[in-house]
């Protein structure tokens, strides 16, 4: 596989090409094909961007029609037919059925644009620069978002101190017994804690990049109540685990909370096209016209596929059922690995179709992912030490392919541990405990 | 024209929809068509994103073929065929002929992503947080870029102080007689000036959002030399005026400078798709793998059209000749307006096909642009007081349409001033002084 | 008592004059006398500045002789006889007997000057801006120190965000069971915690302004070890509880730790004159000549009395014995109040001769202090809600006067609670548990 | 001269001891005496702290009486007789005769404490963090003041970026022809200049540490008007050139401006004792009680000598006459040197009794000062390259001693240049142009 031009011309900053050193040519559904025709099952899905698979046929058809017809492609924030139709559909299929009356901002087409806009809005609203972020949180790497992102690799690249974010322990960070919102409550109530009164807390309900850390619904509710008590906005960053990844359209639906601001990106366009949204309660829409801008905030091709994805998957609750079913398959397999390979000292966790196998020895995860790639499975590691194998198959993957990928994962773990695979046939028949 | 859903659902932050209150449906070349079939000449071109016009046929054909064939759409920074072919073409048609050996970073698909990455890299390289930016500079609105952006409307929206950028007067800011690099030299040489030693200077060769302020080539050379003397990197932000807008592919080619870092975006994809690049001299490529990331940094559809645009327009010098010719038409018309309507106290400026008509009375510009829109011309205002009518037609616009647009502009000026139009036929026959 | 000129001319920022609304004229030992001749027992001692009492006769004699003889009063950091003699004495009586080889900086004559210098030095040494501070810590109110001070009243007065300090829970902050250094260890070891690698931790062994919170020696040792593991300097801010206040010259002597940097001020001059010191391990003395300055860093009158105080009190261990004895009297009395007035829900705490009575109802403390003042006792409140009555008598107070002050305190508590005083004679005969 | 203990024990940060490597023992008026009995004329005066000379007899007598009588020495901000009498005298002799109704804050006893308080107040008042400072300004080295101080030696020692101050060119910085307030006006009026709207401008009327740069009264008036136009406070930092140094009590009296906030320190105590004041227009006294504090803000010995100094020197205008006369002698001598030693390419400047000889070759100044010290004159250098010999004799120096010092200076210049001294007797008879 010839990667010479990448090595010669592309900056050293390139990353995934090092984990998956082939040149991909085509992609369909949950399958990637490289230049030489080799196929891979995709348990990575563009880090959560391809919830509906690669080149989803329904979306693709609409996209082709739109381009053929010379629809407006680039529109800044001018009104276009594509944008109007997206807005109508998003309101009808997503907001109304869930009882939300959010207003919608198109802040630029990437997740970090959305986070930047959300943080600006919160700071403007409250007149306070500080925001609460959480250990292992990831919100993007542009200046404002980066200050709220925990990982030292990204932070260190800034070349300057990052200010106006205070990190607090995420759910579970201080061990089982400790409700970390109690600590946050303590420092916010204490006028001598040194923690500046924050404008907002920004949180992921499941931390994807941070290592698939799952906040309990109870903890999220406690956080929401704490925000109310301390006059802070609650921002849910649903960029990675929204759009169905955690089992419902918004990841927080079953938690019974109502964030003040929500950021969406990654899978919102449905087709892998750059797009992002900021949702805000109407009373918080104090933006001055044009006060946040961005050349590509009107990516109309994305509006077309985004609308199509909503129509295709979110007109009924059926899609959620299929996610639940596949999440159970994933969870069951991971539990099987945890129990079947005690020498790996694995643990499993996740919610919906973002699930993870973690290893006490951080090296193991990387070796399993590398072995899996050799065996035809694209899967990435995450977490502060890359100690977590993160499973993000397309939500639309068919069950046989999902099982095949999980088998490759198990076999890779077995290979890396140097043991023979235990009872692989059992994977299919385990009883699940319901949605994790 | 029904804008109800935008007014009801979209955040107050929306901007251009207020200037151009119609719903656009289709677009081709330099022409936009609204829902009701009305056509507009586009002198806005997506704020410099559509240098090759809307739905450019050559690019469109390649895009459709790629999508039809299930090419990889979303690739993070994995290697793909589309990316490989773009790299090869960019090296062959752009870098090599111009004697550059830049390495290439895909920092996320928007201009502000590129600026963020460029500033991070400079700060890392020099170990110094401060950067020099210039009055009226615009580099984006995410945290890091925003600190280097001059406009108070954007800065104020941050809700917090913005640090680590020092603003210096741009070329001409202190009047004709004063070389503003002399002041910069003074404060950098003076250990007691209070200006922290900077890692870099970031500059636009023509400030688009700032009001079409044009830096002379002499000033740019002085700035480059000053950067060398003070161990600073020179970053040229070519997002708006690169890709041919100023007459050459890079806006600085004729200035005889060699920036250490260059940012490109807007028209680099050629089709209005989100894409951006950071170019850096190879010795400065000290990035750690993955230290800057972004979900959409591998927007493969953009790579396909970007490559096609390079092949179509930059394989020979011919395209530059057409730009020069049209720039002369624009300049000539603007001079005609300046001289023909002395009561407007207008001035004209620009370089290549970014040109501007400025009015002493800032209200005039807005009224002219509004009148022009009624007459079927999309044109925006810029500058700190929106006192500048900014002309950014597609570089590919045909001459009759260009002239038609310029006539609408003149007529709009005349209408706003309440005078009758003076000798419109003269526009075509004035002698030009060469590229402005 | 005529306070008219203060009310008319002095800024609203004035504070203690509101708690003690009389004009003081003279002072001797532990006694203050107001304009009208009324006397007060001083349990405040200049917030820890007058450990040897007001106008200590031995020091006063030397001061008068020095002034009479036209000794140098103001010397910037030029060498003077007074400074030389102070240095010799400090080395001989303080550093050598305790096995320290600190180098000495005169950073300007106030505590906050010392903290500023200490933080600068640590940041320079490690090349990292962040420092760890602790909840309820107080280190001064100039820009650099203020960022490490917890109290929102002081922080809010800055009128800008304060950066580069991360607050962590002090010993006991998360309740009895939780060793807060474990949390600190966790976030420092976790590369994704969002807490920037710090240059140093700055800590008070007993937090005076913060409400007389006492760090256990075990916790201090754990903190020191953590600093070693994470390449951080340990800075002990001994401004309020050094110079014998906590029972030994340095408050940390019995903890068995060796801070990298120590700040001293308040009682170091012994006479209430402005003076401060930064002590640093010799290997950390990387200061460039003159890189930190200050007009009054050579307050020679203070050097004279400082030397005299060392000679008078620290040539033998005897002084420490008297502190221990009086600390026991104080502790015993406070326990008596806690047990004798259960309706007050009081608690007592402290170390050496900084002791406190805390009340669950924060209003109580202020009312007790006010009542005590009426009865002739000057005592202040501290803590984030002023919920703590803080006892700081001169270390040299004689025992009868100490007991008299304690009796006033008890009577004031009784009055405020509306109960009759319980068995006052018992105060004298309680058995103590040793130094608290 | 034995400096061993300083070299062994004192931090490398020590500075002046390197320029004046002797141990000073006594001091009277304008004369310093070292351990070995050698005498030096003092043209340094504690960097402007000893305007009334060392151990001024009148002040000394009052100080001794106060201490003998057990007056309160340390009082935080409690009311004392000494403070009351100072306030009365300051109001009567300084404020009322000059038509000022400033309120007075005691912010801690050093200049940098005063600057910190002044900046906090301005930021609180305007709700804006940015302040304008000027090239070569010096306002202290604690965190807040340091951000407004220009010199890179001090700034670099912070070990972190310093924010929220924007440096603008001081009077004369851009050459004779250019009024630098015009540039400031330009960037403040331009909403796209990138300079955040400031809360205040802080300025020295003569920059002492910055190299004796003198702002014209016209420029100061322009600055004041600009502050009014842009809703900024004008803060005059009169720490070094107030208290008569520039010819009047406040250095700005003859400029006809009325600063909103004034900082005083250095010579305000009159005796070299730490003391400082912040004066603010009454409407700006929005301080919350205790929101800025400091252990030594009630340095009562300083209040005693401060009051005595006011009574002694500022009850009539006579003292100003003597300053003017001596200033003329100084100016005349410096002009004599400039003209008489053209090979030195000297220039002279100053106002009142802060005057300077500058040399084009920065080494010259240091060599002249060193030579002068050998000859018995203490004089320091200042400026960004230490290119300025700064003359700050006590205002009370008698004329013969002043002339003797000036002769030493001239001889030292001659020696360093290797020429013989030209017509020394002429110094006395030159005609002066009036106060410089």
Distinctive features:
homotetramer; 436 residues; alpha/beta; Aspartate Aminotransferase, domain 1; Aspartate Aminotransferase, domain 2; 2 domains; four-stranded mixed beta sheet; 14 helices; 18 strands; globular; disordered C terminus
What does this molecule look like?
- The structure is a homotetramer of 436-residue chains.
- With 436 residues, the first copy, chain A, is an alpha/beta fold.
- Chain A has two domains: 4-56 and 317-417, Aspartate Aminotransferase, domain 1; 61-313, Aspartate Aminotransferase, domain 2.
- Chain A is built from 14 helices and 18 strands.
- Chain A has a seven-stranded mixed β-sheet with strand order 5-13-12-11-8-6-7. In chain A, strands 1-2-3-16 form a four-stranded mixed β-sheet.
- Chain A starts with a helix and ends in a 19-residue tail after the last helix.
């Amino acid at each position: 596989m010839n990667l010479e031009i990448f090595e010669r011309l592309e900056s050293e900053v390139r990353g995934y090409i090092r984990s998956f050193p082939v040149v991909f040519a085509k992609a369909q559904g949950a399958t990637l094909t490289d230049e030489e025709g080799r196929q891979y099952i995709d348990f990575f899905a563009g880090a959560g961007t391809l919830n509906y698979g690669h080149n989803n046929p329904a979306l693709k058809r609409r996209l082709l029609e739109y381009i053929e017809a010379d629809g407006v492609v680039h529109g800044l924030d001018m009104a276009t037919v594509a944008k109007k139709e997206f807005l109508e559909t998003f309101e009808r299929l997503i907001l109304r059925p869930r009882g939300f009356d959010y207003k919608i901002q198109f802040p630029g087409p990437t997740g970090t644009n959305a986070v930047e806009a959300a943080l600006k809005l919160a700071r403007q609203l409250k007149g306070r620069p500080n925001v609460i972020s959480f250990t292992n949180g990831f919100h993007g790497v542009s200046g404002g978002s980066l200050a709220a992102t925990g990982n030292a690799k990204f932070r260190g690249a800034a070349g300057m101190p990052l200010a106006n974010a205070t990190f607090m322990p995420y759910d579970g960070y201080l061990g089982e017994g400790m409700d970390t919102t109690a600590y946050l409550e303590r420092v916010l109530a204490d006028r001598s804690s040194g923690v500046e009164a924050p404008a907002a807390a920004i949180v992921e309900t499941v931390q994807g990049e941070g290592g698939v850390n799952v906040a309990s619904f109870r903890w999220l509710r406690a956080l929401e109540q704490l925000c109310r008590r301390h006059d802070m906005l609650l921002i849910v960053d649903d960029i990675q685990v929204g759009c169905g990844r955690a089992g419902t359209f918004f990841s927080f639906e079953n938690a019974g909370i109502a964030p003040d601001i929500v950021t969406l990106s990654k899978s919102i366009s449905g087709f892998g096209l750059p797009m992002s949204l900021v949702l805000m309660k109407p009373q918080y829409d104090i933006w001055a016209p044009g006060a946040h801008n961005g050349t590509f905030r009107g990516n109309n091709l994305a509006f077309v596929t985004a609308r199509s994805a909503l129509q295709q998957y979110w007109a009924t609750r059926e899609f959620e059922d299929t996610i639940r079913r596949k999440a159970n398959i994933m969870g069951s397999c991971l539990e099987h690995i945890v129990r079947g390979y005690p020498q790996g000292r694995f643990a499993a966790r996740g919610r919906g179709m973002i699930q993870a196998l973690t290893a006490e020895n951080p090296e193991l995860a990387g070796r399993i992912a590398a072995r899996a790639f050799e065996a035809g499975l694209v899967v990435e590691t995450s977490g502060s030490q890359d100690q977590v194998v993160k499973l993000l198959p397309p939500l639309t993957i068919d069950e046989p392919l999902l099982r095949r990928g999980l088998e490759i994962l198990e076999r890779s773990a077995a290979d890396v541990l140097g043991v023979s695979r235990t009872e692989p046939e059992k994977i299919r028949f385990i009883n699940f405990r319901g949605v994790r």
